[in-house]
Each structure stands twice: as C-alpha cells, then as structure tokens.
Amino acid sequence: MHHSVVYASARPSSVSGRWFRQLGVVCRLNSILLVRYWKAAILQAVLLPLLVVGIVFGVQNAYVADNGLVTSADNTVVTWKMDGIHQCKPEPLSNACMTIVYAPQDAETTQIMNYFQTQNQARTGSALTVETNAWDSMSVPKNDMGIVPMASDQFIYDYALANPDTIQLGVVFTKETPAGGPIHWNYQIYYNMTHATNISTIPGFKYTKEAGYNRISSNDDSYGTLLPNMVRALDESLLTFLDPQHTQASLDYSLKSFPKASTKNGYSSKDDITTMLSNLMALPACITMVMAMLRITREKEMKCKESMQMMGLGPVAYWTGQWLTAWIMALVQGSVMMALGYAFKMDFFTNTNGLVIWLMFVLLTYSMTIFGFLLTTFCQKTGSSLGFGFAVVVAVLIVVPMMASGTWLDLYVDRSNGIPSDSPPPLNTYWIASFFFPFIHFGRLWSQISTLTLGTISGGSNPTVPAGTYIPGPGFHLSNLTNYDVGYPSIQNILPQPISGLTYQFANVVIAALLTLYLDQIIPNEHGHSRSLFFFLGSIRDAFLFVRHGGKAGVDRQKSVEAQKVTPYEGVPPENEDSDVTAEREKAIHCQSEVAIRISNLTKIYTKNGPGFWKNLYLALCCCCCLKRRRSNKIVNKAVDRLNLITEPNELFALLGQNGAGKSTTMQMLYGVTDPSSGNAYLFNRSIRTDMAQIRSSMGVCPQHDVLFNDLTCWEHLQLYAGIKDLPAEALLESFSKSTPKEAIKENLRERPTWIRSRLEAVQLWKDRHTMAGRLSGGMKRRLSTIISTIGDPQVLILDEPTTGMDPIHRRHVWTFLAQFKRGRSILLTTHSMEEADALGDKVAIMVSGHLKAIGNTTRLKNKFGNGYRVELALGNYIPTVQDPTSLAIVHDSNNNLPSQKQLEQELSEATRAIVPESVLLDQSGGVMVFGIPLQALEKMADLTAMLERAQAQGRIKQWGIAQTSLEEVFLSLIRSAEDRH
Ligand SMILES: Nc1ncnc2c1ncn2[C@@H]1O[C@H](COP(=O)(O)OP(=O)(O)OP(=O)(O)O)[C@@H](O)[C@H]1O
C-alpha cells in the first residue's frame, strides 16, 4: 500500500506568536505528565501535607507540659558543697538579669534579705546589692541587678511569665501567727527551669551522684548546688533574723519553677513549635522541589530536552513553561497545607490572617521549586540532582528551625554584647548571603508569625481571668505584615518586616529564574557544547546588523556573503586522495551559490580536558583569551578532519563509514549539540556557529539514539513536536468530507489531522498511535523518531541511522516514504546498510577515520572502486568427484562418457579466458565457478555471454548470471585499502 506524503509546513508567524505557542506546548506537556504521574502528584499535594500536619498535631497532643512544681518533701539531699549565690549567670540568662527577686517588701523581709546579702558576700565575695525600691514595671532591666524587691508573689509570677529567663531566683515569704502556736515562717523559692534543662548542654558541667549536674567552677545549676545553697542561705538569714527575738518559730520552704509561656492542649511554648516543627511544615515543599529536579534532569539525561531544542524549542519558552507549571503544584500544595492547619485547629493557622498563611506556603513551594530548577543546571544525571536535592532538604531541616526560633535576628545584628536600648548594635552582614535562600525567609516569617499567634497562661493578675487560663496571642493580622514590633526599639527600624519574608522569596524566584536561563546556556552539555559567557551580546550584534543592513533582507544578504567566504584548506590533504574528493573539496570551499548544506573544513577534535563550566568561568575572570591557546588540551581523538562537502536541494546524501568514522560527530555539529573545533558549515547560508536558532527552525533531526518521552503516546509526540515547529492549527485538523457524521463522532475530531495520519500510516504506526513510546519495540521507536524529524516539512533533514533495528518490510516502507518526502528538500543520512544507501542515495560518501575517502553517485562509486562484474555459473552434468545425488540429466561425450568435474571446470575456465584474458577465477567450489571481469573488458562481455548460453544449451552449465559489484564490495575494498596503508 502506498501513501502519498501530505505536507504541512510551519506557519510564517511572528517571533512572539511562535514563542507563545511553544510556551503553550511546554505547559501542555508538563500537564500531561502531571496527570500521567497522578499518584506522585497526589502524594506531594495532599498526602505529604497531611502527614506532616498530622505529625505536628500528634506531637502537640502527646506533649505533656511540666507545671514546674516541686515540693520540699521530694528533696532528699545527700551531701552538698555549700557555697552561695553569685551574680546573674552568663548562660542562659545572656541579657541583663536580676539575681534574686523577693516579695513582699516589708521591714522584716528587707532585714532578712540584708542578712542574706552580708552572709552571702562573706562566703562568695559576690556583693549583691539589695535594692531599696520595689521593681514595679514589666520591662526588662537595663543592667544586671542583685536583690530586687517586688510587690507580691503574683507580681513575680506575672513578671517572670512576661520576661522569661530574666530572673535567676525568686523568694516569697509568708509569715503566719497561729493562735497559741509558734510563729510559722514559710518561704517559697522560684528557680529557673530553662536554666536547669539547658544545663547539660553547657560545657563545664558534669553529673555527680551527690549533686546531680554540678559545675566544677564557682557557678552552679539549679539542680546542683544552687538550690541547696539558696535554702541554706535563706535558713541562715532567717535564723539570724529570729535569733535576737528568742521566739519559737517553725520554718518551712517549698520550691517552684518560674512559669513558662503558653500551655495549651498539652502543647505549648513558642520555643517548641518553632524549633521542632517548622522544618516539618517545610518538608512538603522540599519534596516537591526534589521531584521537580528529578523530572527536569531526567528529561535532560534522556536527551528529551535536547531533542525539543533541536526541533526549534527556544530556551526561554522551555523554562517559562517549567516556571508556569510549577505554580500548579505550589497553589495546590499551599492551599492544602492551609486547609489542614485550619482543620486541625492549630493556633498558628487559626490565629493568622488566611491570606498571609496561604501566601506563605504557596510561595515557599514555588520558590523552592524554582531554586531546584537552578540547581539542575549543574546536573547532567538524575543521581547528581538527587544529591543536590538531598543536601537542600538537610539544610532546610537544620536551618529553618534555627531561624524560626529567633536566630534570624543574628543574621542582622550582633547580639553578643546584648542589645542596647538607645543605639543600634553593629549590623551583621550574614543576611546578604542568607538572602538567596528562600527557606531562610520562610523560617523568619514563621518566627515572626508565631510570636504573635501563640498564647500564654494567665498568671492570675487579672481578677476576671483565673490563673492557668490559656490566653491566645493577639494574632497575626494583615497589617502586621508591615507593622511588627521586634521588641527592641533600638533595632526596630533596621530589621525586616514580615512582608519581606514574602517579597524576598519572590525576589529569589526572579533571581533564580534569570540565573537558570543563563547557566543553562553556558554550562557545557555532555558533548562539551556550551554558549560563550557573553552569548547575549549576540542579540545586540544581530540588532546592529539589522539596522546597518536595512532590515531582514539586508541581513540575509550579508549572511550569504559571509557564508560564501572562501576559507582555504589548511595543511596537506591525506595521501592518495581520490580525485572526486579533491573536486568536492574545491567545490565546497569555493561555492558561490546557495546550497542546502555546505560543509567547509569542518573539524572536530575531542580533548581530554574539553571546555567546561569552570574553565569558561576562569577564562572570563582572567579576561584573556590567549590563555585558552596556551593551555594544553591533550588531544584524545580527531573525530572529523577538515571535512568538505555540499548537498543540493532535492538530494539525499548518504554518509557511510565504519563505526567511529566520524559520521555522528559530523551530524551533531550540524544540529548544534557539539561545537566544531575549527571550520564551519552553512545550511542555506546560515552558519552553525552563529545562527543555530534559525537553522533549527528549518531543520528536522533524527538522532542516532531514540529520544522519546516514555510516557507520551506516538500521537502525543507528533502533536508536541508539531507545536514546537509551530504548525498552523488548520494543519492539525482534517475536513470530514469523507466521513459520515457518525464516523466523525466515533473517530474523535482531534484524531484526524491529515498529515499526522498520513505519516503514521506511511511508517505503519497508525494502529499503535495511542501506545506509549516506552512500550514500543526498538524498530517502532525508530520509525516514530524518523517521522518526528519530518514534522514541519523542514528544508534540511538529518537522519542518523534511521532504519537501524527495522525489519526488511518496515524498512522498505520508510524508504518509500523518504524517497517521496525528499522532494524539494535535502536529506543527509548515515547508515550501515549498503542496500539502503544504494536504494536511496543520490550521492554517497564514504568516510574513513574522519576523512572523506570517496564521493559520488552509486554507479560512479561502483565503477571506480568496484571490481567490475562477477560471472557466476553452476556446472551441468559431470561425473562428480564426490557422489552428487542432485545430478539428474546425463551428458555424454563422443565416446558416450561423462566428463569428470575437473575436466568440465578446466574446459569452462579455458573457454572464458580465451574470450576475456583479463578474467580472474575468484572461486571454484561445490560445482560453482565465479569469475571476476574487470571493467576494461566490458566490450568482450557479449562474446562471453554467447559462450555461456551455448554451454548451457549443451548441458555443461546448469545456470549462470552476471552482476555488477555491490556497494558493499566497494565499501569493503576502500576500507581494506585504507587499513593496508596504515
Ligand atoms: N563525547 C566524545 N568524547 C570523546 N570522543 C568521542 C566522543 N564522541 C565520539 N567520540 C569519538 O569520535 C570518533 C567518531 O565517533 P562517531 O560517533 O562520530 O562515529 P560514527 O561514525 O558515528 O560511528 P557509529 O557508526 O558507531 O555511530 C570515535 O572514535 C569516538 O570514539
């Protein structure tokens, strides 16, 4: 069955129109893949958020807050190293603090605390001043203070709640005078729980059986000697106070930790939620980033991206498509995170403006994904992108909780000496480095939101709110985005407001996107191809040419002048160069007209340390191109050596050669994935060095290895590439004149574009049009790759071994299609099938070790390099040397005897030589003789055939035939002669 080729060319559209349509194609491709991998999409968008929010919720409820109450009865003190109380300790109370507060302030308690001071100084040398005025404000002290009176137990409680870690110890005295009984003095000590729990992480503390965690130096922790010291010192002071009175008194004491902020649902303080759980909340965004990185790198590794670019897809359209589709996952995942937070009734969510929460999560996923895209520009393999992604996830898990717990302040200000209230401390510059990482902004925003959303426990200072009641935080409103109180007036104006947590992430997106576009161009691919560091100057040059030469026509004229520039052949040609090759070289070098492909002195040298990103960068930084020459690039392989040839329109040029001859390298240079080392090639006067974008829009490529998306059907591949080639919409749809309305509905409108169907049918893939490429056989994939390269009816078609792995039937279908399709265009094809080159090639060239060895049409090659003709004959009747049961007819000589096989062979050999003395007996075995007849004996062929016919009539020959030397023999003899020379 023969199909005539239906053509469909790209529309002559504006650059911007084409760009938008290519963008649509990339978005559509990504959407199809998203739907096809729906399980992974659901996992990222729904299940992961559910998992992390569920874990956070579980942790909240499992966490049992410590109310900090320890009674004196629990204390079984063994042996204590008695010392005293020292001025506020450096850690964790790093800001100005009060060493001891006491209440109430009256004459007796003041007297007791004065005794305390005197005796403590005697023991420790530490002079703790007893303040005379009661501390009545809720603000933090400016300087370290000694013994500070406060109004009441309640005030101490409220103050400690509002200013955690500001007081080291507290003491509240109560004196009861029961009727008839002794006076009862009770004091309750407040100790700092944070101090106690942090103690094991502070260097210098060690655990002893007697004293628990005990610092060897003069400073102690609450559970070590600090509390016993306090108890002993207070007992001593009380006894000193009571002794002169000679009254009987009973003493008692109790211990209690200072209150900690907020306890709700068992889950509590800001510290816990920020340090522990903020990184979990960032995890879904991280996983989405890694998945996106893997998808992009897989497309790169499978060369799908390269293939789309070879077919004309611009890098800006490609990346814009990726950035746009990344929004889908960001929007869904961000919304799901927000919905789950509300569903689990978490304060952080319910107490924050919904828009802020939504933007926070959507932007995190988006900015992380775009950041991941940037990282893929450094990765050629999925393994390396997995490594990069993993490193980022670890960084997020560590850094986000640090930021969220308030460390972000250290990025901006130096807090090592506290924050003075009047003038701002020195500014840190870490924030500049941190600016480029979106997750750092997320951590800071988390910290700022959590300080306003998480509540506290009432200390009971408000009579209408019983102590222990949870008081929600004031909440994070939209206005707080630009109006957030940092808590330190002196640095309020130099610290970023919460809105920058969103705007900086957006800035990260823009910076990462621009860097991705740039690095993607300058980092070399696996063939070492990359654009120059200053490639963008090329557009300026184009614009300059456009103005200078008076528009597009002028530029085209200029380009054709450049394309026809004669570049002399360097060095000496290889030994014994064929005259046709020399002629082709002269023609290619001096060509003065527009041809389809002109290859001029094209050379490719593979080097050990080929062009690399870092080398590029080094060269740019040094700004001296001469260095490039001086650096020794150890030559590994000269794959193509000063190649010169021309192909005309309407011509199918077949390039033959052994494995490694340099065919694919030549093609790769033509379609722009490998840079030539020297020389140039022009396709319709466009240089492969400078005009690859224009060349690609009128070129079709079928690379040596199939480049297909495993998850797209044949049909979708053709649609995808049709979109990249910008085929007009009309070309995608067929009129329904031939179908009945019922058939039309059945067949689905979108399945009947004329040219798609005709091409699928031409290579027998119509029935498999809805099969995923991953499930096609090797030969089917090759057929699909071949027709993909013809999309848009390119002027130049480059086919690298298109029929490899095809069975003979399908190969012939492809040949028929190509023979028809080549009309009006030029096809460059490599093959290892001599039959194919013979059947299709208008011009055939044979390459050996990067050089052209022979060129011409097949008849010329056969005549020039073949051994002339072969005459093959099967002997007739004879007495076989070995019994031959197939001998049927009997021919007798004059004596009625059969000749022997040897006699017959000799007789025929002599007869042949008598007619054609130049003939050579090539083979003689099994009753078959083969003679080689050189071309110069062509005129004697008539006599020879007459003799052979006579011998056949006599029964001496069973059958015979004459054949011209095959292309395969030409190929073999050329290769052999080249090998002999080496
Ligand atoms: N990326 C590379 N780095 C170094 N050498 C290379 C690279 N690619 C190809 N070569 C070398 O260049 C030479 C030409 O290879 P090329 O792939 O062009 O041969 P070919 O004629 O297409 O062979 P085949 O018929 O096997 O496809 C070979 O010696 C090969 O080893």
TrEMBL record:
InterPro entries on file: AAA+_ATPase, ABC2_TM, ABC_transporter-like_ATP-bd, ABCA, P-loop_NTPase
Entry annotated with the keyword Transmembrane: yes
Location, primary (coarse class): membrane
Name of the protein this chain belongs to: ABC transporter domain-containing protein
Source lineage: Eukaryota, Fungi, Fungi incertae sedis, Mucoromycota, Mortierellomycotina
Organism: Entomortierella parvispora
Pfam families associated with the record: ABC2_membrane_3, ABC_tran
Domain of life: Eukaryota
One cellular component term from this protein's GO annotations in UniProt: membrane
PROSITE patterns cross-referenced by the UniProt entry: ABC_TRANSPORTER_2 (PS50893)
Gene Ontology molecular-function annotations: ABC-type transporter activity; ATP binding; ATP hydrolysis activity; lipid transporter activity
Protein topology in the membrane: Multi-pass membrane protein
Residue ranges of every copy of the ABC transporter domain listed in the record: 597-874
